[in-house]
Amino acid sequence: MAKLTQLIDNEIFRAYATYATIVLLKMMLMSLITAYFRITRKAFVNPEDTASFGKGESAKKYLRTDADVERVRRGHLNDLENIVPFLGIGLLYALSGSDLSTALLHFRIFVGARITHTLAYLIPLPQPARGLSWVVGYAVTISMAYKVLKTALYL
Amino acid sequence: MAKLTQLIDNEIFRAYATYATIVLLKMMLMSLITAYFRITRKAFVNPEDTASFGKGESAKKYLRTDADVERVRRGHLNDLENIVPFLGIGLLYALSGSDLSTALLHFRIFVGARITHTLAYLIPLPQPARGLSWVVGYAVTISMAYKVLKTALYL
Amino acid sequence: MAKLTQLIDNEIFRAYATYATIVLLKMMLMSLITAYFRITRKAFVNPEDTASFGKGESAKKYLRTDADVERVRRGHLNDLENIVPFLGIGLLYALSGSDLSTALLHFRIFVGARITHTLAYLIPLPQPARGLSWVVGYAVTISMAYKVLKTALYL
């Protein structure tokens, strides 16, 4: 039987595990920030969420959109759109036998770019801060995809 | 050459494979429920989807939002936001050499929490049913992330 | 220590790596198409994105939704909803010891169906082109899930 500790003993795989977990925790933080803004701004979308504010019209006024809530939600969706490719392509890249320092470089830049993207979205920073951080994460993922296809291509 | 059956012979990995597949099938079910409500409520978003109802104004009135459709879509997006971290962190956790009973506990609670979340969203149940089921799934993922980082940390 | 090249030497795993990467790159392309339509249609959602068009009312008019932008965004979200299950279930399927030609058939049909789905959404083609391509990708994923559960079931 394979010892599963074999994979997790490999340094590149450990680096992938570390950075993938960090960037997923960052993405999960978006849920908490959304909840924070929904509660402090009193801006909900489900009628059952406003039941504690009373019944009828007094509760209905909290069923509304709020600019801050929508901003966090856009950041969250952008995370999904970009972190899902990183998770899949990054895992395959970690198994493709790159050298450790190159792999670390890819993982670190991607995670740094996504943290910057979130800060640029939520503060918000003037453009092109958000655009550039997005491009950097995108380019890192493309670079890993190129390596995966070069190593593994089997059509 | 590695025998790929090695991984799938490991009990923790098999447990991960089972629960990950079940929770993904549950998420995929949301697409069918959305389609069901779009068709029964006649609430579509793409003009080409209403072509069978005739042309011009008679079809245009079906390009509208419907409360039930939007509710299923919010449940689907919440699934994506929470099941993607489970997939990634759970895979790394399954490779991190936890003991089998602890791993099963994590996987079972997560999948149970997400099924409860969907029921709470669609019925809908009064709060805090949906909130609590969301928190439980979130906490399980954090617990697995902690174990992954403790085992694999390589920055 | 495990040689990570072992997994990537396996033909089924290489096929998975290839098709997963291709379909993720296709999904990432949706971000570029969204950006293209946002810029050419001048339809933005974040105030900081319109700052280069001037200040005040002259910039505010570009904070609007555009039918083409929304269409690409729906295609992108549909990708997420369908490609995430393919990534997870497909990885487990690739590790479940199917035979190579059956695995290739699944991966090729899925990727072909998703490319067709995107074309049907963006051109747009009359229904049922988009609906059918969605069903085909969905059915391939269910077929892989069945094989994973038959091989690995551990509840």
Task: Give a summary of the structure in a few sentences.
Chain A has 155 residues and is mostly helical. Chain A has helices at residues 5-9, 11-40, 57-60, 67-94, 100-122, 129-152.
Explain this structure to me?
Chains A, B, C: Keywords: Acetylation, Endoplasmic reticulum, Membrane, Mitochondrion, Mitochondrion outer membrane, Transferase, Transmembrane, Transmembrane helix. 3 copies of one chain form a homotrimer. The first copy, chain A, contains 6 helices and no strands. By secondary structure, chain A is mainly alpha-helical. Chain A is elongated. At the A-B interface, helix 1, helix 2 and helix 4 of A face helix 1, helix 4 and helix 6 of B.
